[in-house]
Every structure is written in structure tokens, then in C-alpha cells.
Amino acid sequence: MPKLSVSATVPTILEEGVEKLDLSDGSSSDEDEGVQPHEKAIAAGQPNPAYCVRNIEQHAFGRREIEIAEQEMPGIMALRARAKDDKPLKDAKIVGCTHINAQTAVLIETLAALGATVRWAACNIYSTQNEVAAALAHAGYAIFAWRGESEEAFWWCIDQCCTPTATWTPNMILDDGGDATHLMLKKHAAAFKHIKGIVEESVTGVHRLYQLSKAGKLCVPAMNVNDSVTKTKFDNLYSCRESIIDALKRSTDLMFGGKQSVVCGYGEVGKGCCQALKALGCVVYVTEIDPICALQAAMDGFRVVKLNEVIRQVDIVITATGNKGVVTREHMERMKNGCVVCNMGHSNTEVDVHALRTPDLLWERVRSQVDHIIWPNGKRIVLLAEGRLANLCCSSLPSFVVSVTAATQALALIELYNAPHHRYKQADVYLLPKKMDEYVASLHLPTFDAHLTELTDEQAKYLGLNKVGPFKPNYYRY
Amino acid sequence: MPKLSVSATVPTILEEGVEKLDLSDGSSSDEDEGVQPHEKAIAAGQPNPAYCVRNIEQHAFGRREIEIAEQEMPGIMALRARAKDDKPLKDAKIVGCTHINAQTAVLIETLAALGATVRWAACNIYSTQNEVAAALAHAGYAIFAWRGESEEAFWWCIDQCCTPTATWTPNMILDDGGDATHLMLKKHAAAFKHIKGIVEESVTGVHRLYQLSKAGKLCVPAMNVNDSVTKTKFDNLYSCRESIIDALKRSTDLMFGGKQSVVCGYGEVGKGCCQALKALGCVVYVTEIDPICALQAAMDGFRVVKLNEVIRQVDIVITATGNKGVVTREHMERMKNGCVVCNMGHSNTEVDVHALRTPDLLWERVRSQVDHIIWPNGKRIVLLAEGRLANLCCSSLPSFVVSVTAATQALALIELYNAPHHRYKQADVYLLPKKMDEYVASLHLPTFDAHLTELTDEQAKYLGLNKVGPFKPNYYRY
Amino acid sequence: MPKLSVSATVPTILEEGVEKLDLSDGSSSDEDEGVQPHEKAIAAGQPNPAYCVRNIEQHAFGRREIEIAEQEMPGIMALRARAKDDKPLKDAKIVGCTHINAQTAVLIETLAALGATVRWAACNIYSTQNEVAAALAHAGYAIFAWRGESEEAFWWCIDQCCTPTATWTPNMILDDGGDATHLMLKKHAAAFKHIKGIVEESVTGVHRLYQLSKAGKLCVPAMNVNDSVTKTKFDNLYSCRESIIDALKRSTDLMFGGKQSVVCGYGEVGKGCCQALKALGCVVYVTEIDPICALQAAMDGFRVVKLNEVIRQVDIVITATGNKGVVTREHMERMKNGCVVCNMGHSNTEVDVHALRTPDLLWERVRSQVDHIIWPNGKRIVLLAEGRLANLCCSSLPSFVVSVTAATQALALIELYNAPHHRYKQADVYLLPKKMDEYVASLHLPTFDAHLTELTDEQAKYLGLNKVGPFKPNYYRY
Amino acid sequence: MPKLSVSATVPTILEEGVEKLDLSDGSSSDEDEGVQPHEKAIAAGQPNPAYCVRNIEQHAFGRREIEIAEQEMPGIMALRARAKDDKPLKDAKIVGCTHINAQTAVLIETLAALGATVRWAACNIYSTQNEVAAALAHAGYAIFAWRGESEEAFWWCIDQCCTPTATWTPNMILDDGGDATHLMLKKHAAAFKHIKGIVEESVTGVHRLYQLSKAGKLCVPAMNVNDSVTKTKFDNLYSCRESIIDALKRSTDLMFGGKQSVVCGYGEVGKGCCQALKALGCVVYVTEIDPICALQAAMDGFRVVKLNEVIRQVDIVITATGNKGVVTREHMERMKNGCVVCNMGHSNTEVDVHALRTPDLLWERVRSQVDHIIWPNGKRIVLLAEGRLANLCCSSLPSFVVSVTAATQALALIELYNAPHHRYKQADVYLLPKKMDEYVASLHLPTFDAHLTELTDEQAKYLGLNKVGPFKPNYYRY
């Protein structure tokens, strides 16, 4: 096996230690320690087991979680209901590599209902809900994942999905971070040729795909669902509008009314944060590098400042730039006592947490995901999630958001799997066709009892549109 | 001792069992079982101990909690700093009966700093933070309280504070619910004559005081701080604006965007809920009995409806009326699957929870403070906190709100203790003088770096106002 | 006749000249010049005419205006419909002294429909809509008013209403500013004894009444409708929330998005202004003298500052304090080029306009109600309505707001006229009984298709309320 | 000259009559009648005059208007200041065909300051501000435009700009609606070959360009500035957010609080309308054909309905679809008395006004731009601007919005004029390069005292961006 490195975020996480990553409800933390399940399997003479999870006995509890998630994921369930007779994924053999939780379980079982066979591994060593993995395995799915995988186990699990066998010739990849694609390409180059398409979910994975494409190494069409309209708006604007409030409340119990806050970055995430904070009575400042976004912030009623101008007076600092080193030690030196620092951007680089690991500063863990960094003079800064995504302070993403993402992924798989050969070039990365994006949205409208208006023939002709869409040019900004 | 009943909410709580009332951080739950501390004290031959708490050894942890609370309670700390030289409560002997937690500890220690001696008991058998009680006892305060008091212990504790001794002749009462006042009046009628004033915090306690006053049984002036301006606005409008979001998020993880909700009652609490829900993207309906509040709701952009008009379509039902039987079984029969029912009003009567305790319905506890009520056809209703205050789903009130309340209580004590005899009649219940209300507000302005404008002499003369207030007529509505 | 001065605002207006007070739609401006109508009447040997208006021939146009106003004043029309059979004002003889326009015409005709006889004069020399006065006169009402009355004519008109005759013994006064009350008291002291009650609308008039009461000169009960709940909220919060936007747009066409503005005063008017400006994308600062209002501003998300802190940077300055000298020449010296100065408070004293009438500054009238004050260095300040109420820049108050006021006035008249003798003391000024306030509100709910919930018997008992109200204690703040 | 038809909207306007199109401040309406200026010129033996305007004597008044506009157009003035030394339009010979008012005058004079020579005609027969045209002509610009041009005059004016002469070989076109391009192509095909680029502003003109491009008839590169980011957001979202309020207030004086309204279409314009109406207390419903926009509406808190579901209950109907026949006679039959109908979309087709011109309905003009349509039963519908753009009810577009548009146009001209030959293909229509869009935004930031953050070298490298932009991929949605 060639030398592979675990995806970028993992090493940091490992350094910081397991105790800080408690995402569970506490029910299974004890089992995370000790022997890795795949070692037991191997030791038991099962190098290629049908599945590998922490404890199959937990399946009933996991099944209940899945059933609850089904109720809250109307879009993907509607897709399952509508398409299950057509079986648009008949004979599809999908390698999946995503977080494994109740919500992705609903996706997995939907793909199966649409005709696909799947083998699935986790894209993150800590995020697997063991009970859900157990429920899926118990239902006959080839699941290879548990909470607290070792690095070696991480790749072993993915490899269980990618390796072709007599009965398993994967022809599709659903990836979240690019690890399955990466391993397939490096280790199973021959099998990779059977792949008809890759659907990639994450910023990082998409970035890797564009690089592969540019380098001429991508020999299958790939679909970037990370930038589809519904996903972007839901995962970013609408979801962050709520999760920033939730994350701050759960971790600090602070009161928003009258608090001064600065949001670094006025992209979709920053817009959502600003809107929510303003709505709950905060005074909000914005920093931006892009004059267009800065002008939007101004027109939306926010003072656009450099961070230094307000750093001494704010109660809350939120990063949402996707950049690195946005909040530096120097900034933190100037913050006032009790200032809360919270990252809503895509990585743990925005706040220079490393610069806080100096002997003069005392770290005090005050509750899960909340540290006080204490200066020699007694000043405390409240750091959430050690500068990683503050969403981690919330219990989970809203199922509704995940439903949109899952429906998008499923439709992207259907599209790539069924598209005529000429539609997508082998070496390119595509955005989801607008019509599919619109279809995802339409799947979710009934939840809101929203009633769509239909064009009359005359109106459609006047607008030069097909009555069933797509309704907008590609450059439309929503 | 005459027959006394524990205040109204307690029996219900007892029936429902301890496991449903877990308000703690989990650190001390084990100790709640077993022998009541006062029994040990009595058994040890200490019928009148200096204090009685669960475990004095926990004092250091409690002290840290108090210190953190001090940071977040700027108003009461400012009062402590400003008045500690004047000692306006010199020789005051205060019987206190409130919740006992880090925040009330800050109040207690402030009263002491202003010159008072105190003896303190809990107003609720479940709400005491044992560590904080330990810290106070360790610091020399006469604290009688622990989490999970028996009914007998509850009254024993209060009695330790009320009973006069050679060194203890109480002359002030700070009450929350009226139990200390009640016991003093019933059991220590002679000692009651030494009381110079009562400060009462709760709706229930205030109601009791007005009844006593009306019945001619109140022989001391009492101050109703429950209806002071700052307290009303902070505890209700501003606090509920945030806690409704927090309570719903923590308990259900639902997404607000696009959800239809109905808020029953458009008083301060209802206004706060509506404002927050609308701000986060809900469609909000309002029910009202009072045409003035209904008109306000309409002008604020909410459809005013009867509950039956929307009950089938809403995703969230919130009660904030102070009334009983607002949401009936009949309403709940019509709710759609997954509808969340949440009480933000003052008691557990708003939602007719009792009517849900029928054999045909299955109750499933899905997490702390969240039950699914399951109909025979599988329909689930999500009931928060069993119809009691949904705030219980949040970890605690924001310290800032408590700071306002605490400062108000302290100022009311100072006013009653120092007022010339003729200012307050013996048998009446008073609102806090406006100037005191304004003073409480001014104590909290520095937190927001808010800078007050001062009247010039000419302006004050023009307006007919004293330059230092009060600034408004008594009927001003804010 | 004793020496009487016209109410305070008029002389200022006269000094500033008629051309600046053009409130009309332009249709009748020509007639304002020339002979005063009452001189013609007197010259024609009619010292006590049945009415006196500018031009009775305009009645048809005025009638159409009244009919349109009727459509937009649902509350007062509903009152007319409900009470016209009861005739609660039977035999009432009302002296009216208010603005005379289509909306007050609806009030006047409603009072008549309820049984009253009226004689009516204008409370302001410029605000009469001549066409409406003509329509009323044509319909048989004793109207004495025209646009552009001389001071002498102003008092002559009021006197036509107050002077008792063989057929006219006034027994009620509806006043707006106190001029009819004043004249009655000074000139017709004997007739004044027949008055059963005074209803006063304005801040100034109410102030005068309290002074009379204090001085022991008030010998009839008076009702202060200026501070009734519905009126306060509608005339101030809700109405100003819209009129500030309208006034600024009509006069300056500025764009709100991104503009920095400061609102002086956070009472109901200031709250309305702040809410609207924030909603349309302004950055809003607040100044306050009252710590309670300041704290509300902070919790509502506004920085509370002293005017000097922001005066150099703001684009818009709004006064809403009711005070004098809030914006001084010194402040205006520091304003930036193009800064708009706008008064939403109660008088023309808030902005020190007088201090701008110096030789170094050039005044340039750029459109009706808008002046540029030009500094020697070319800096321009945009002053609206010469510092008088910026509402003057809008065409009129929304009919809906006037409907609330008119219904309140009518109900106050009914209450005072029908109350048993002991209910109201001769020398006191009263607020409208809450039940009447609630009734006014209920008259307006159908406009919004708002459906009130009714208490069950059990609920009413639980709350200790009558099922039909009143629903709140007097100190309730809404 | 080939047969040319005036652009689509004009004939409708002509049919409806001049009196309904009064856009002026009233100062020059008299002159609109009578002889067309170019006839005088021709009669005077000046077939090719240096300019042709209504009355050159009005230049001083026009100049003052231009100077005021300069103050309110910071972006275009900043561009003028920054680029006037570089003269990036040196030797450019620009045919301009736009509205002619104070704001476009600032653009014209900026183009001249940057080195260009211009000849300019109006793109609309009614929108010319005669005084401004006079000021420009007086300053030496070749302006051919007046208010109330005949169709023949309209084309004559454009032809004066397009026709090449010894000293005039146009090499750039700035068009708004496509008429100059059209005439050039049809009548001056030879001269057309000298054109280096076309900048087109309007939806209609852009549509024509795409058709020409598709048909292979476009032989110069064209730039579609209509879809540039800043223009889209400013002209639509931000501008309409304010103008919907302004238009409705000025025309109807209605109160927004509590009104029910429906907005047809949730594009940028619809979003702006909804946001403003909600903010001022309306209950807002949305209709949509596109599921993505519908989902956005839902998540933003609006009920998504079919028009028929709410048509009987709403007080305000707003169209913002760009479609035809959105509000039909049938809908209007069901509206309630007093319902206001207002078009914010792009044309006069959205409301089927034609269907209201039936004998049973009475039209009553109640003020400029406001008609009451009266049903036999007395029901009135209030129609704004006869179904044309309700913006016409406002006095003008905010200068700030126009500044953004003008700066965008100028930069597009600079880009096309200076671009190396290979950058733009001859037959294509381009969007403004993102960097130019960002530059337009940056020109306007100082107005808001907004301070942009600069990337460090390290950050730029991390993001893979140039420190000066562009900062976003082309598909970014803002």
C-alpha cells in the first residue's frame, strides 16, 4: 500500500487528544478505548468481513435513531418514495465514504432502495455513531466504521470498500473529503477505470478534484455538489444563521442583547451569522477583504471595519473567512476580559490557536468544547471548540439541512450514473445541473406547505422557458 | 408548628419523580439520594447548627462558580463597590429564601458587604447548587439548603432562618414565593413585628402579599419587585427572546427557518418569543384575549388568530399567557406529527398535560426535558419540560438578567430598611420607586459601554425634571 | 374679551412666513390671500352666522374626501354603526376645537350620528382643509374655520362655538391644545359651569389642564386622551416607525442602506424611528438621558452614545426627545457635508434652528420643507421642516392612526357625558378607563382580520378577570 | 433610412397619453407641447447642429442639478479623480444613448474627463430633463434630446450621434435599450466596423445583443453590464427594498403595520420588497414558479402560496416576476375593496391592465400615478402607475444606485476600449470582469466609511489569491 496521509484535519485532532472531541451523547464513550474492531476481525481470521463495526448489538438503538431522522428528512424520503419503482441506481455499486450517523444512514438506505449496492466507510475517525453503524450492518449493509478509528484502521475501512472482489466491482464513488477517491486512484488504479462518476461533498475534496483534473489525472467525470445552490444556501446561510446562536448559547449561556460582536468575513456563513446576531440585539461589525461583500455588509446595516479598530471593545469575535491567521495572538492580547472567540469558517486555521499555547497563558477547560485562556493579569478569553468549527458545540446539524445535502448527493449519483456518455467529459469537475438543483428544492417544499405556481403555456413562451424548468440562467445568483 | 403546605408547584414535581428534574451538571446527582443532611445534624446533637448543607467539602468548586458569576453580574458588583463604605444595610438582619446558586450567592455576599447579617434557605427543593451552598457556608454564612430537600427538611431550613434567637432578631425578609413570609407570620408572629419590610420576587409571592394586604393581615410594608420596570423587561421580553430559541434548539435541534409557529399570548414574554422566532425565519401566528395586545401583534406583523384556525398546520406551539387550559387535549388531537409544544408562561397549567396521561397515548422520554407523546396512529407530539417552563431546558438564566434582578432586590431592601417611617404604610404592597429602578438600570449600562447624556440646567428646567431623575411619570410604559 | 395669546407655536410660524407652511395639495392656495371670511360675514350684517368657511361651493370635493377617509377609518365607522341606535350622546352639545380635515370630519359626523349637536372651530390657523369645512357646513354643521385665519379670526371662530345662545348651551368640550377650554374659562365663566366634561387631545392641552387642576381652577372633570394606550402606541411607536421613513424619503430621496444615523431619545417615537431605520439598513446610534430607556436601546442592539461622540460621522440626525436645545449650533458645526437634520419630537425647540439664522450661513430652500444651510466653506446641512415636526414633510397622518385617535376621543366624550356624578371629580384630569381603551382597540381589529380569543368561564375565574375585560392592571406597560 | 420601430415600451406609452407620464418637477411641462426642436433647427437651415435641446437658456438650473448629483455620486466622482490623469478613454469617440438627467450628466462629463469625445441622445422620449440637457449643451457637449420627443425626432436624435462625419468616427457605443446599436447596425453598417465595443445597460438591450450574437450578426464584442454583481444587487435588492416603501407611501399614504401583502416573485426585486414590507410590520406572502427561490422564501419566513389562495384577503399585491399576466382580471375581481396593485417588475405586462379597460369599470385618477378602478358595486382597486414600474411614483432613483451603475458603465467602456484584441471575441456578449466589479464596489466604500481588510502575503498564498483580487470564482453567488 502506498504511503497515504490521513486528511489534513486529522493529525491536529490526534494531537489535541481524544477527550476534547466528545461528540457523542455519552452512551458509548467507554468503548472508544481499547482494541480496534478490525483487529479483532483479523485476529478472528476474517480479513474481509461483511462489515466491521464497534458493537452490532447496539443495532436497535441505532435503528430508532434512523427512524427519527427519517421523519425529519422529508426531501430524501420523498425521493425514495418517488424513485423506488424506477430504480434509477439499478446495478450501481457505490463506494461511500462520509460521516456515518443517523442522517447518512437515511441516504444509504435510500440509495439501496433506488437499486444500488453499497460499501461504506467513515470519512472521519471520530464522527461515526456506533449505534447507527450497527443498525446498518445488522440490516445487511457493508459498513466499515467506528468511533475512534486509528489511522491504520481508517484506511483499512476505506480499503474494504474500494477493493474489487468477485462480487464487487465498484462503479460509483460518493466521497466527502476525497479519501476514497484518493485511495482508489493510488491503490486500485485498474478498478478505478470502472468508475462512472464521483460525487464529492466537501470543500477539501472538491479542491483535490480540481487539482487532479488540472494535472490530467482525473479519468472520470466528477460532480462538485459542494457548490450547488441549495446546498450552499442551506449549509451556509440558513444553517449558520441558527447554529451560531445555538453554539454560543450552549457553550457560554451569554445573552446576545446589547453585546458587541465582530464577524470576520461576509460570505454566506458570515451573512447568516450577522443576520442572526443583529436580530437578537447584538451590535455587529464586519471585516472583509472583498469590496463587493464589504458593500453588501454596509448596505445591510453593518459597519465595515478592520479588526484592530474594534478588537478592544467587542464581546464576541466570529471568524467566517475560510482564511488562516485571521485572529492572531496580537488581536487576542487586546481583547477584553470575557471576550468569546468562535470559528464558523471551514477549518481550524482562522484563529491562531497555536499562538495561545505558550507558558504564560493558562488553559482551563470549563465545559465540553469551551476553554478559558487565562492571561497573567487574570484576563480570560473564552475559546470555543479550540478554534475548530463552533458547530461542534451544537449537538448536530439540523436534519433538514442534511436532507438537502443527501438529496443533492443522491441526485448527483443518479445523474452521473445515467447520463449519456457524451454529456460529461472524463476529466472534468461539474456543478450539479440546475434542473437537479431545482428538483432537490422541490422535494423539500412540502415540508413548509409551500405551493409552487405553475407557468401557463403563454407565460412560458413569453419567458422562453420550459414549464418545468430550469428557470434561471447559470449565472443567476439567487 | 401549624400545618403548612409546600408551595403549589412542589407536589406536582414530587409526583413526577426526581429523574425528570435533573437541573444539575451531573456532578452531584449521586448525593441527592440518601439521608437528609439536617437529620444527620439533629442526630449529631446539633438541632441549631450554624449552617446545614450537603457537603461542605465542595466549597472550593462552589467558590469558583461564584467568582465566574461575579464577572457576569456587573450591576450587582458595581452596587457592592459603590455602597460598601456607606454600609446602607448596617445592622440589617435579613431572612433570605430564594433559589441558591452562584448568582444568588453574589447577591448574598453583596448584602453582607453592605452591612447586613443574613440567614438563608432555599425556596425550591430542587434548585440548590450544593457546591455554592457549601462555599457560602464555608465563608461563614448561615446557609440551610441542599438539592433534593424533603418537604419536612424544606420547612426546617426556612425555620432555621426565621426563628429568633439571642443573637438573631430578623428585621428584613427577602422572599421568592412567599414561604418565609408565610412561615414567619404563622409561626413567629411575635418576631414578625420586628420586620421592617419584605421584598418579594415572584408572581406567586406577590399575589399572596396582595391577598394578605387585602385581608388586613399584612403588618409590614412589602415591596413587589416582580413588576419593576427593569426586571419585567429583562426577565420577560429580553430574556425570553433568547431563551425560547435556546430551549427549542437544545431540546429538539429543530431548524427555525420556514417553520410555522403559534404563540399564545402577546404580553412581554409572547412579544419576546414572537420577535425571536420571526427574526430566525419562522412564520408566526398569535392568539390573544386582550384587544390592545392583539392590535399590537397585528401592527408588529403577526396574524392574530384563534388557536383552532392554525392548530393543524403549525410546527411549534408556544404558550405565554399565564392562563390555564390554553392548549387542550382537543388541540393536541389536531396537531400534526412532530409538532413541538412548549410553555414559556408562568406555570405548568397552560398546556393540559394531565389530559395526555391516558392509556391510549404512549409517553417516550427522548432526552432530558423532552417527551414524545405517541398516538395510536404513530403521530408524535414533542412536549418540552412536561409543560412546565421551557426555560428549564436551558442550562440557566443568563447571569446578566439575574444581575438586574439581584440589584433590584438589594435596592428594594435598602429602600425599605432606610425609608422614613411615614413613607411606606404598614399594610401595603409597593412598587419600587422609579428612581431606584433607574438606578438599577444605570448600574448595568457600563457593561454595554453605553454613555448616558446629562440634562443641562436649562433643559431640566424646561422639562420640569430633576437632573438626576426620576425622568418619567409613573404611568410611563417604556 | 380678556387678552388672549394664540397658542405657542403660532407666532413662530407667522414670523417664518406663509410660504413655508404649504400643507395643501395646491388646489386652494390662491384663496388664502385676501379678505378673511368672517369679515365678509360681519360686513354682510351676519355677526352670528350659521357657519363661516372660505368657500361653501367646494363642498362636493370635500364630501368626496370625507367619503374616502370613511373607508380608511374602520374603527370610528364601526363605532358609528354600533352606537347610532343607542344615541349615547343624545342632547350633548359639544364645542369642538381641533384640526379640520377629512378625518376629523368623520369624527364630527360620528358624534352627530350618536346624538350630539356640535359647533366646531380650528385649533390651528393653517391646518384647515377648506373643502372639508365647506362640505361640513353644507351638510348643516356649524363650522367656523378656514386655512390661513388671522389671529383675530382664530379667536372669533372659537368664540362662535363657545358663546351660549338661546339654542346653544354647550355641555361638553373636545379640545386639541386647550384654546377652547381657555377661552370658555376666561370669557364665558358662567357658561363653563354647564360643561360636564372636557376631552383633551394634545400634550400642550393636557399640560395646561394639569396646571389648572393644580391651581384649583378646573371645575369640571377632564380626560387626558393623549396618554391612552392605543393612542400612545399608534401615534408614536407605530406611526413614527413609518413616517420617519416617509418624511426622509420624500424630502431628500436619500438611500437608507448603509447610512449612519443617530436618534436622540429612545421613547416611543425614538423606538419607532430606530426600528425602521435599522430595518432598512441604517447603522443607528441612540442618545438618552434616562438609564432605563438607554438600557432598552442597548438590549435592542443600538450603541448608546453622547451626541458628540458620533456627530462627525453620521449622515442623519433625528431628534425625538421632547426637550429643547438637543441639537445645537456647535453640533451642527461638526456635522459632515450633507448631513440631514430632522425633528420627530413634539416641538420646534429640539434643534436650535435660531442659532442657524446668522449672517455667515446661507439658507437655500431646495424644495418644500427642505432647506440647505450652507457654511462658508461650502458644507451643506439639510434641515427638514425648519426643525418643526418632520411629519409635515409627509402628506398626512395615516387615516388608520387618526381613526384610533378619533374613536378614543368619541369614547372619552361618551364616558364623561354618561358617567354617574361621583365617578369623576370636578377638578381632576383622568386617563381613559382601560375598558374604553380596550374597546377602541377592538373596534380596529377587524381591519386586520384579527380574531380575538375568548376566555372560558373557567379561565376567567382562574385569572380573576371579567370575560369582557378589562384584562390588565392599570400599571401594565404593554 | 430603413424602417425602424421605436423600442417596445414606447407605443404603449403613446397610446396612454402624455398626461399620465408626468415625470418632471413641473417646471417645464408647458414647453413639451408645440414644435419639436429639431424641426426648428432644420427650418433654420441647421440639419447637423452642434446640439439640439429644448431651451439652452435653462442651462444654469441644469448645472445646479448636476452639481448636486455630483455630491451624491461618490463612486463615479472618485473614478473621475483617480483616472483623469491617465485618460484611459483618450481618443475614444462614444455614441451614447441613455436617459438624460443630472445623474447621467455626471457620467457623460466623467467620460469626457477621462479623454473621450461623446455624442449623446435619449433612450426614452419622455425621460429627458431639459435643463440638464441644456447645461450639457451649454458646456459644449453634443446633446440631442428633449422631453416629449416625437418618434421621428427620437430617431433623428440618435442618428445625429451615429452618423460619421469628417470629425466624428464613433468607436464605442454606450447603449440603454439597444436603439443606438440597432440604428448603427442597420443604417451605418460601414461605420459600425470601427466600433471597438458596445456597453449595454438594459435587460431588453442585452436580450437583443444575445440574439444578434446567436444570429451571427454581432461583429463587435459587447458587454452586458446589466448582470454585473454590483448593479444587480444595487438596482434590485437594495434599491427596491427602499423604493417599494417609498412608492406605496407617496401614492397611497397607507400604513404598513398589520397589512397583508403578497409579493409575486422572489428574485432580487421580490426579496427586497419582502424584506422591507416585513420589516415595517406587514404580513407577507410570496408566489414563485422556481422551487429554489420558493425554498428561499420559506426559509426567510414567508408563506409560499398560489395567488388565488390569498387574493381575497390581501391589502397589497406586488408583482416582481418579469413575467406577463401574473395578476389577471380574474384575480382583481376577487380582491377586496381598497386593495393596492403595484408592479415592481420590469415591464407593464405583469398586471393585465388591459383587462381593466372595460365599460363596466370606472377609472378615477386620484392623484399622479394613482388610479382607482371602481367596480359596479363600489369596490375600488388602487392601481399604481397604470401597472408600469411603481418606481415612477418615487421622484427618482437614489443617486447612489445610479452612481454604481454609472461607474460600472464607465469601467466597461474603459475595459473594452483598452483590452488587447484577443481578450474579447468579436461576436460575443461578456459580463464585466469580476475585478472591474470589485473596483466599482471599492469606489463606493468610502461613502460608508467602510474599511477594507488587506490580505497578508501569507494569507493570499494560502487562499491562492492575488492580494488585489479578484477574490471570488465566477460562479460565486454573493
UniProtKB/TrEMBL annotation, chains A, B, C, D:
InterPro entries: Adenosylhomocyst_ase-like_sf, Adenosylhomocysteinase-like, Ado_hCys_hydrolase_NAD-bd, NAD(P)-bd_dom_sf, S-Ado-L-homoCys_hydrolase_CS. The keyword Cytoplasm applies. Pathway: Amino-acid biosynthesis; L-homocysteine biosynthesis; L-homocysteine from S-adenosyl-L-homocysteine: step 1/1. Its cofactor is NAD(+). One of its GO terms (cellular component) is cytosol. Binds 1 NAD(+) per subunit. PROSITE patterns: ADOHCYASE_1 (PS00738), ADOHCYASE_2 (PS00739). Residues 236-397 form the S-adenosyl-L-homocysteine hydrolase NAD binding domain. It is an enzyme of class 3 (hydrolase). Its EC number is 3.13.2.1. It catalyses: S-adenosyl-L-homocysteine + H2O = L-homocysteine + adenosine. One of its GO terms (molecular function) is adenosylhomocysteinase activity. One of its GO terms (biological process) is S-adenosylmethionine cycle. Keywords: Cytoplasm, Hydrolase, NAD, One-carbon metabolism. NAD(+) binds at residues 267-272, 288, 391. NCBIfam families: ahcY (TIGR00936), PRK05476.2-3 (NF004005). Belongs to the adenosylhomocysteinase family. This is Adenosylhomocysteinase.
